[in-house]
Amino acid sequence: MDIETLKLDLEERLTKGRYEHTLRVTDTAIKLAETFRESEENAKIAALFHDYCKYDSLEEMKQTIASNSKLPDLLLSFHHELWHGPVASLRIEEKYGITNQEIKDAIFFHTTGRSNMTKLDKIIFLADYIEPGRDFPGLDEVRDTAKIDLTKACYLAAKNTVRYLMEKNRTVYPDSFHAYNDLNQQVFGGMKDE
């Protein structure tokens, strides 16, 4: 795959700010992949494509979800911000011939996470969360943790995300709860007493 051609395509598809975000996520993902011994090439491809469908029309994404058996209909019951990852996981195969399931899954779940996340899933989920352009409460702790413990950093990101959505009285997609619970188990090894 010609990365420079892909970047030109992304630059046309995305807003300037979203394109710059994508490049920062890609740089962050490559660093995480190097630190935690994952394929840097896979991390780069997944990161570049993670927001590929971010600005597709809602109607087009809705139709794709409704008509494709690989995508859960449940997505349509939740905020459309969750749609672009799953849709992109299909589009990259159609347009670029990318069939690597690990890359496609990392793109699919980059917003919500999931139970039993692979290392690549964690890297893309975390890179999107901690890229240098982001700034919100709790981020410094996640960034510091990401230097030494990928799973714990993902746990903190998932915890912050679920808490934020609940505080805003927003619904939480089931995969986000599953990600939080599974990461909690991995970090704490079972029941945690407070």
From TrEMBL:
EC number, UniProt record: 3.6.1.41
Domain of life: Bacteria
InterPro entries tied to this protein: Diverse_Catalytic_Enzymes, HD/PDEase_dom, HD_domain, YqeK
MF annotations from Gene Ontology: bis(5'-nucleosyl)-tetraphosphatase (symmetrical) activity
Catalyzed reaction equations: P(1),P(4)-bis(5'-adenosyl) tetraphosphate + H2O = 2 ADP + 2 H(+)
Alphabetical list of CDD domains matching this protein: HDc
Location of the HD/PDEase domain: 14-142
UniProt xrefs under Pfam families: HD
Catalytic EC class: hydrolase
Keywords associated with the record: Hydrolase, Iron, Metal-binding, Nucleotide-binding
Annotated protein name in UniProt: bis(5'-nucleosyl)-tetraphosphatase (symmetrical)
Lineage: Bacteria, Bacillati, Bacillota, Bacilli, Bacillales
